[in-house]
Structures
1.
Amino acid sequence: MADFVNYILNIEGSWFGYVVAALVAAVLILHVVAVGALLFIWMERKISGRIQDRLGPTRVGGKFGWLQTLADGIKLIAKEDVTPDLADKFLFKIAPYVGLAASYAAFIALPFADGVVGLHINTAVFFVLAVLGLEVFSVILAGYASGSKWSLFGAMREAAQVVSYEVPLGMCVVVPVMICGTMNLTTIANMQAGFLTNWLVFNDPFTFLTAIVYFTCATAGVNRAPFDLAEAESELVAGFHTEYSGLRWSLFFMAEYSSMFIVSALASILFFGGPHGPIPVTEILGFAGDSLGNPGMEAFSEETAKNDGFFAATQFGLILSRIIGVVNLLIKGCIGVTVMMWVRWSFPRLRIDQVMTMCLKYCVPLAAIGFLGATTWQALDLPTGTTLTGSHRYEYHELWTAGLKDKVLLDQDETADSSEAPIPHENDTQTEVNKVPLKTVPVSVLKGGER
Amino acid sequence: MATSKIDDPRVIEFDVRTDEMLINMGPQHPSTHGVLRLVLRTDGEVVSDVEPHLGYLHRCAEKIGENLTARQWIPYTDRMDYLAAMNMNLGWSLVIEKMLEYDLPERGRHLRVIISEMGRIASHLVAMGTYGLDLGSFTPFLYGFREREKILNLFEEACGARLTYSYLTPGGATADLPAGWTDKCRQFLAEFKEVVPELHTLLTTNSIFVSRTAGIGVMSAKMAIDYGCTGPVLRGSGVYHDLRFHGEERYTEMYEGYVFDVICADPETGKYPESNYEFHGDSLDYPEIPRQAILGDCWHRFYVRMLEVVQSVRLIEQAIEKYEATSGDWGKPIKLVQKLPAKEAYMETEAPRGQMGFYVVGNGDSIPWRVRARSSSFCNLSVTAPLCQGILLADIPAIVGSLDVVMGEIDR
Amino acid sequence: MSEIPLVSELRAKFGEGIIDVNLEAIDEWVEVTPGVLVEVCQYLKEAEGFRFDMCNSITVVDYLHTDPKKAAKVDWDPHLELVYHLSSIATKLTLVLKVKIPRWKNGVEGDLPGVPSVAGVWSTADWHEREAYDLSGVNFLGHPHLKRILCPDDWEGHPLRKDYEMPLEYHGIRGR
């Protein structure tokens, strides 16, 4: 992206391109958060309506009431922003922003497709989980600062619950990281390219188990029913947001819905193929190249632009495949969110001790079993679901990084031969695809730079 | 400091003890079913003491009753248990009839069975739905209200009102059931058949629901009787007592010739009566009692209501047959200004929430000297304080919800 | 009704404590003195063959005509009548107990008359007595925490008394 801007403006290597790229990414992600929340709230209404044998919104914005959330948003903005007398004014006001900022920031490292990512981070898994964990501060702040006993109760529960569920959640996330040998979400996603069976959830029985445990813990981590104790309306009135009104209240909801999407998207990247559909249509058609050996492939390459002209540099097939990838990921994320909604409207709420029991007595041991089992599976070289026969994913990756390392070093020495494709995988069935030449070396992968 | 020795163990306890918090749960709170106010003393999530405060809906119904004639007071009975207004009407009508020694024609008797059992279904549906709501499950609430809506439509057709009916009056009812009503009622029963298993799936057998209710708020039979608990709350503790069987003759004769079960677990075996009732051709199996459930806990109280609904359906089916077989007078209301004898009468009926009693003292005038309503929810609620000690905060909605109180009836 | 053996047993046991028995009334009632009330209740609850284990309601009826013309016509003096409706789940019997007490203690207006509390016999009597105290102004002696239940704690007067007048205002809210 930065290269592209700089090329267009003919100011190569300037900081300006990076700033523009960052702004564009920020605005795009903001849209994911805001429009996502609009869409999910509308979805929640329609889905809950259908589950409860009623219609849900039908009037605003035509037949399906799809503008209902917008109308509500306008109403919420117009409402008075009440701060209780007993509240700690500053903390009370800042709490919703903390929550929204945390869930917004987590989007930065979330790859929507290969290369379609705000900031390419090698440790994206770690980053997303860490930043998402910050959301608990907003709840604690809100509960503490509201000056209401019910809010305080909500905050206490949230703190206890989220901190506990981070443990099994982390253990589940380690499994794909271990299998793929990387914390880079883009690479993890690309390792699942190809057919459905390549998805990590089908790698072995233990990853299947881990995927289920992950989703349960993620539901608890973002405070969705049946784990929505922090805002349990029949016990705590509205929990931590009892005293909030208007826009600040709606910010909590935007944060909640975007976190729901993030954990679902993360689930789809870690276990369900990420941007890769069940059938690799674009790869069969030869648009995308095999992302596996080619993780840093850019839709726009400055060097090609220099050598072969602008249009040659812009690989439309690749762009198309990435758009399809984004759509794939969005659909998977939405499915995850829908499942959460489905669960919410079907089950009663657990009690705080049962939530803790669930975490410590069931989720943690199951996650541990999943982790140990998956490790053993890898170590014993048992058959996996992947079509990458004869090799483990992590080996594959290790070889790839080895090649990459050489490549980068060569590149930095300006002695690189771009025709020397670093494809170490010998039994690859998709050699045809792999022949798509590497135009650039993904220096940014190692540098963690912007694209 | 470190070397100082503490002899008195209470000193340590005092040192580590955290502050207790007094919290007002209500009168505006989502799960207090109206305007009940519970003052909780909590240590973190653990509630050590609960004190109910009533009276936020006190409307001086008894005082008003001393200024109105018997028939004029009927709308005030509607507003007591507003979820089962028909049963409130019935209770008041029966006590006035008892006082006047008035005998109802047979058709009116069957009409009253249909109407009051429909009222029981409607009331139990709300009880079930709001109980789900108390535990954080929204969907059963709307399923319950969907079915209740059908009952309300039928009631509206019969009397023109949907909540406060004033339909059953001393002397009978304000009007006979309209033509074709019984067919619609039959159709409702047929549709309702599909819903009962759905509700069992969503709540009764749901494992989260079971873990939230089973073993919570256990009330022994002795305690239930001692605190004057009645209705499903009493039967949930395994006490075989239903006024439709064991009440006064004037009330039980209404149910003469009807076949139905009193839903109550046998305290010895913990088993409920076998479901030997063919529900529209299908035998309706009751769901199994979960392992964790203890007789007298929230789950059993809920279960009793769920099974009673089926018995009500059974009664209505029989009542429709009997009603259609009779013709003629259904029992016209007494005069608006009917002189009451200088006597006193007390009568209890089996309302959905328990035994609803009315006491009336006459002095020869048309306006009674004293009117008293013995509210079932009032007594059922009085057991809250002893039940809610040393439990978790989240159990309070579970326990109060399982008592199924209606504040209109408690505060009168 | 099977209350005839009950009456004879009560008479045998409490003698003078049983003031009146009416078996012709719609609901047969037994009138006792306040002095033996708790013992009678305890006996009725525990006596084999009766076992009145449930106290259905406690009602106070105020007999007073505020209109002197009407008061002249009636054959009773102003008094309060406590009505205890008892029933038995074990034997399915019902019984009405009555206790007559003066409207004011020692005739001093404003001094609530006292009756021994039966909250120790039936726990449900706790709330019923609180309600009777609140609305009719009867002081139940020995009640664990006798305070108003339906009216606010600072309410004045006892609304179900016949001579009760609504206060002109309550915390700035107009009453009449």
2.
Amino acid sequence: MFKNKRNLLAAGVLLLIIVATITASLWLKFPPTHIDPEARLLSPSGKNWFGTDHFGRDIFGLTIVAARVTLFVGVVVALLSTVLGTITGLIAGYYKKAEFIIMRIIDGMLAFPALLLALALVAALGGNVTNIIIALTFAFWPVMTRIVRSAVLQVNNIQYIEAAKTTGTGDLVILFRYILPNVLSPIIVQGTFIFAKAILAEAALSFLGVGIDPSTPTWGTMLQESQVYITIAPWFSIFPGVAIVITVLALNMLGDGLRDAFDPHKKNQKKSTKKLFRNRKQKYA
Amino acid sequence: MLQYTIRRLLSLIPVMLIVSIIVFLIVHLTPGNPAYLILGEDSSQESIEQLEVQLGLDKPMVVQFFSWIGNVLTGDLGQSVYSSEPVTQIIIDHLGPTFSLMVISLVLTLLVAIPTAIFVVWKRNTALDPIFISISLLGVSIPEFWFAMLMVLCFGVAIPIFPVAGYIPVAEGAINWFYHLFLPAFVLAAVEIGLVARMLRDGMLESVNQDYTRTAKAKGVKESIVLMKHVFFNALIPTTTVIGTTIAGLLGGTVIIETMFTIPGIGQLLIDSIYRRDYPVIQGVILFIAAIYVLVNLLVDLLYAVLDPRIRYD
Amino acid sequence: MNFKKHNKISLAIFGIFLMIGLIGCSSEDVSKKDNTANEQSPGESTKGGTLHIAYASEPDTIDWMYTSATPTRDIGWHIFESLFALDNDYKTRPMLADSYEISDDRTVYTINLREGVKFHDGSEMLSDDVLASIERWRKASSVGTIANRYIDSVTANDDYTVEIKLKEVYEALLSDMSAPKSALMIIPSEIAEDAGEQPLKPEQLIGTGPYKFEKWDRGKEINLTRFEEYSAREETDWGGLSGKKVAYLDEIKFQIVKDPQVMINGLKTGIYDYAQAIPPDLYDVIESTPNIDPITYINGYSTITPDKSKAPFDDLKARQALNHALDKEAIAEATYGNKEFYKLDGALFDPDQKELYSEDGLDQYLAYDKEEAKRLLSESDYDGKPIKIMYSNNNENYKKISQIAKQQLEEVGFAVELVSYEWATYLEKWNDPANWDLVVIGWSTRFSPSELGMLVQDTASSGWYNSERWGDLLDDWGIAETGEQKQEVLAEMNQTVNDELPFIKVANETSFDIKSDKIKDYDSWVGQRFWNTWMDE
């Protein structure tokens, strides 16, 4: 019961953030990117709930609007990684010959801490939204490949799939009609985790000053800008950070909850922990 | 065991090959000519062409790759564009601080995570468990750099009990070394603690339900002794893998933490080199970190095989 | 080091009290505090100690003659000296020169050198070295190339006498020779001849200054050490770059640190003794921090320079649109925050520089008018392609100006892209017009019109400015003798910049540095100089 409530809460929070940021222009009191030198670094008040930043912008509004780019990067990276990872994972799990090559490449890519790989790529490509998405996708999809592949290996010898193979059903049909639905749950779970990690990684890259240019408000660029003022305007650093924590926590809870919900053997502690182990290892590999 | 070790060592070859291809491509992905990067944009066409020949940039990419990899294998990672020093030497110069930071935060992580996990398993049927799960999820949801900012605000500004910048080599006094690294190491460890404790808890819960545990309990052995003797030590085996992933997490984190706390390690070197577009150094650092990471995983796997002989028949 | 541990605990308790105290007294007027003057310390000045300076931008060279970049200047003037130098009130004084005479027709300058002045390599400075250095200055320095047009010949009468013959009267010669940027620094003749128009290599950094170059760890630090055989002048009351200089410190380390928060934290923990370019917003915090003193000084002004070699800003209409689009009041207020740290003044020189300041010809300085900007833009050749604003990420102020400028320009119809680089890379990128359309940069205080780097014709630093009108004015300046004549030229210079808009001035800047209270007898003038200052350990 507790778990379900938690999932519901997490999903609700995410939905609220998404709706808030999309409809921001309809209900925000101040245009949040408007620079007002008269109102610099004001502490939180009834007018500016989260205070104002070094350009006199309303931090509440800015945090809401910044969610757009942040969430956009997160969603796109999660989707792209999922699609790429699923396709390569399906191929690697299904075709023995392709497996060797694909998995060696994946192993090689997983030899880098994800953030460092993304950092190096952004350094090479240059920092803008598109390149951040490319770099983060590159850093995160190998994990998905590995998870999809091992899920495919588990269902590969289920009887009806074996049967379909012997009756000469086309590979594509087998892969997408029979195997994919069976491995969908780990994909969704992992996709949620990648979403969460992409938000953290974007923030880290922007914070380090190699990410999105500082005039585009994202939670990461806001925190980067706030660093100088942390002693005189701590609210500037605190609120965007809280926004990240809430969003990422909601995503992680959702992923965690989905994993339990999808797991038919949940009652059997042994099995589920084994799986958890595998996933953990893959997640941080 | 020997056979397994050899097999595991051989499997490194394709991995490292892929790693080096990726690292090599990172530079060749960059728009613009590396010779321009080295000489500056306003240099003459002749000097650029001359350098291209000298660096082998006029040759096909495959040839360039093999000559680069040949140098790497002899320990030559090239020369910094910025300081003209050999990259290998630069990396060696920056190793000490990073190594110190990693060791302290790894120890901190294990020191906090292990007792926490034992305690949570001991109290597994109370409300403590779901609270613990939530806290550990919170742990992986906090951006490291933001947590660092808050810590600096707390312990550097509001209650200044810890230094928030600088590094003192251990040779100049172990106490001072530890004192200066404590806050950054703690920030670095904080994110990992939740993760490691959660994995330990899961591993221990698994053995709680094992037959030998039930037998021991049935024999009337005290709960705490059962936990320590059977459950904990059995859970330690999978924990070795945790160390591997922890090191990966810490390696990624050092980049941010070193920059924020002014620790002259390889993380800060990487960021500085990125600002300077010093590609040979970027290349060298990334390759070095990947190699360390692959090596740590190898050691962990071998250790795992020693502790749990079944693994070899996997 | 261990005694520090106990201190920390008492410091912690103190910190808590401080926090409480802070709330009560956070807004004080900066101007009331006299923080730039010499503090007289009761103790005796002592030799020794290593000074750690957190310096924001790493120079690409320390050749003080070769470039007018401020980081080069700040380090270079410890190592090198020139024949003439500015004193505390920006007046020209002899430095390596002992005395000088000007002929009645004002075209022959006879300069007597001081005897027994040693270079860092141990050799004595003689007229040969001065000849070679002037020769190099005429080619390699942006100030020297202007003076070069008037110089007929430079000869040595003997080892200690140099004679400069001019083609025509050029009243600005002495001020050019004492320019603290692209400076006429005196180096050994072999080095000057060997280097020619190339920047000096690290091993060629041999001067006569109180500190000598020790080593340069690229990307990390630049070390200077005391020059034991330095021969000082006698005058103790001149100040600036002239008069008596004593090197009290054993060693000066310029350490490259980008982040102001890291600088402040470092100063608190004692890893740095001095930090440069602190955001003015933090002034109140610094003021109330024990053991840290604020340092303020005038430091030129911030500018936005368009690249005039190609579209869109080769078109005057586009530059006028740019000028009208920028709300400088808002930019300055949002960038510098504290009103004590900026002045809205469109002139080429600072009001403190009484002989160089003119308030005429500034009607276009505050011309913010969005509608007018839109109109001008539509009349210009601008085709809607994104323009690139380039800035260095080593400086918070220029980053902020760039961001606000971007927003203001977008409001009138420009498409804008921001690009930032670390300082040395940024300087490199500056040289190629392909890399930028607008560059945001500050120009430190200048002391002569020939020193205005943002107006040197056909160079990257001026954004490839090319103007006959400006060239003629420089000629007029060369022959202006009386204060009145000079004022006339200066007003006309302001007007020219107003009409042609080679660069857009944002606001006069006051710089904000911080130092540990261990540093005694420090005088900020217009930049960091660490002779005559000492450390109390």
3.
Amino acid sequence: MPEALAQALINGVIAGTILAVPALGFTAIFAVLNYPNFAIGALATVGAYAGWVGNTALGLPMVAALALAFSATAVAGLVVQWAAVKPLESAGALMMAIASLAAGLVLENALRFGFGNDLRGYDLPLLRDWRFGEFRVGPQQVQNFALALAAMGMLWAFLRYSRTGRAMRAVADNRDLALLRGVDPARVAAVTVAVGAGLAGMGGMLVGLDTSVDPLVGTRLVLSIFAAAVLGGLGSIPGAVAGAIAIGVAEEVAVLAFNPAYRLVVGFVVILAVLTLRPAGLFGARAS
Amino acid sequence: MTLFTRRATLAAGSALLAAPHAVRAQGAPIRLGTLTPLTGAGGPYGPVMANCVRAVITEVNAAGGVLGRQIQLVSEDDQTNPEAGLRSARKLIDVDRVAAIMGTWASSVTTAVAPLCWESRTFLATVSGADSITALPHNGWLVRTQPNTTLQGRKFGEYAIELGARRAFFMAPQTPFTQSQFTNMKTAMERAGGTAELLVYDASKPSLRTEVDQALRFRPDIIVMGGYTPDTTVLLRDIFRAGYTGRKLAFAYSVNQQMLSALPNDVTEGIHTLAPSPAENSGGFARVKRIVGNDNPDPYTCQVYDHVNLVLMAMAAGRDGTGQAIRDSIRSVSQGGGEKVDNALDGLRAIAAGRKVDYDGASGPCDFTDAGDISDCQFRYEQVRAGRQTLLRIA
């Protein structure tokens, strides 16, 4: 049993790290634009398909396909923002969230219209896991883990060292003060949406690499992404990473304790507990 | 002239309103519905099923329809989801006022939709297999062309034993048939000295590594997969990664050509599959092949072809285009002797000539018990070899 628990922890950390990439996108958009973008699942699906096209039709290697997934989803995210969400900005966060949900459904069905319901697999060999005594870890998992860490590292560097990244943090911290300092809110919003959606697309592709691509690949992640962001504190970048890893581990360990069919309960229980005990989440003081 | 026209119009309108309802309805089209999964896990099957029904109806309409009335088809998507299926069924029943709904695929959808059908006197023909469906108090408003899961579970257990397995681990998502499928498989295995264990997983999970670890701790000599295509794809990948090299057995509807194209051959090589077999030498099967333009039509398209033919003939035999007529007359055209027919055109001609018909379709003889189950079915045993299904036998 201790071996089973340790193996579940390894699986959970890896699953959580991949989940952290779209969770970062979700929380970044919330931090700057103050609404939960529920199109994140469909955007992850866009990324999964874009990466798949890049890899199988254009013959791109994995890193280039991931860059394509990021770029295509950034564009899709901007289209969703300008066409569906922005016109409802004055109606408040709830309306913007509903608009994003609707836009997500449109995106998902547009993909279904274009690609059909068939499962798509990347042009990659499927390798057996490496075994270390009682434990095992997959080469693809390790690669995805490294790619997820690299994406998070680049985001951290972008937010810390680039002028635009600092402007995004400034708007997230204190919008009015940032405006007084001459930050262009429209530009910051556009960059945030592009980066947030792009991260969702990368996350969708990473999940697609580990499984397969179909029109629901991203939608299946939405609850876990949302639970991760709520647990970490909506709007908190480190919180999204910690929340995603915690959710990943909780979902895997729960399989050992409960009937695996009730995995979804984990996400709901976490959301309920956080909203009851610490509405700001683990790291999200400003969200309260 | 204007006054006369106005009077004439008023008179004609009044006469029309005063006429009996039946006179106005005469010649109005009869509406039928398909409720198949155009999206979701059943998405590979539903569109072909709906197109097959449309082709049969087009052919019948071109030959004059049923009882002198044209047939109008309304096709809705159940999204392989009971909630969406229920919404679509309400639309078919309340808005379109269809006489019958055909082709519900997932057992969860059929279970949700069935009460709505019998309460509204709408006939339901389904391809779902869960035992619980025909055990519902449907009072004759439902038939299915898919063998129930008692039979399918027993076949799985017997086949696992035949393959030399003694310890089976059954992995499936939560569905209305999971428990009965497992119980009947386990009973069949235990009768032959084997044993079986069940794990129900969450079908929306992107990775099932921990679940596969649970399975391997049982030390199975066969893993039986009871899910749909998307989750079985995830499961197969994780079984392969875990290094399991034992036998694998699954429903043929989940291990379909689309999955085989999406996964490397190493992952799928050797999987055994079981499926209710269409009647491959029948005239109905040849017609379905022609309609779908494919030499190997799936069992569900064959079954829904039978649904529409039976429904059309039952309305003709019952002399009415209603669900009630279909319910009361379907067994008079599906069984009990008479002129053998394999399509509605021949059947409608025979019925119009006053002859009794006995339909044998693309999926089988289509003889129904009082509960609505089929009384006879063959199974198709296949194995995946080099990325393709290879037929081992039909029995």
